Amino acid sequence: MKVIGLAGWSGAGKTTLLTRLIPLLCEQGLAVSVIKHAHHHFDVDVPGKDSWRHRQAGAEEVLVSSANRWALMHELRGAREPHLPELLAKLSRVDLVIVEGYKSEPHRKIEVHRAGNGKPLLFPTDPGIAGVVSDVAVETTLPTVHLDDIAGVAAMVRRSAIAIEELTKMATVES
To answer: Which residues face 5 on adjacent strands?
Structure first.
């Protein structure tokens, strides 16, 4: 299992890029999963439904299953947010995991940059960035691909992804 991150400021187009990139990677024969980091309070459950009521009552985990999908919700209840390697260990094995967000985690990332955001590039201060995807030319020695070149982005992702074991070693060194 390999992993690569997409990092960038809010509004850079990470999610849009992923929705265009995943189908191409799947067409290329890869099984792909995504870990998305949310910086805000979020809920995947519907208030008032049974599973929501179970969590509100204090359940540590609630697993909801149907003929179409299953979802596991785990309440942290004040515990620290898990680091990326801990979350990766919870996923089923696939060929590639794309991590959206987690800018501060020490994993290999591709920066997604949109000039209209007016935000600075991340790569000058993040040694984990292996390439830049942008809607404008970026002066760097790192590989660059235009935001609309989905085949080029897919190639960069495949070249830059690292084995999950390598990421675990990187995280251990950082701690």
So the answer is: 99, 109
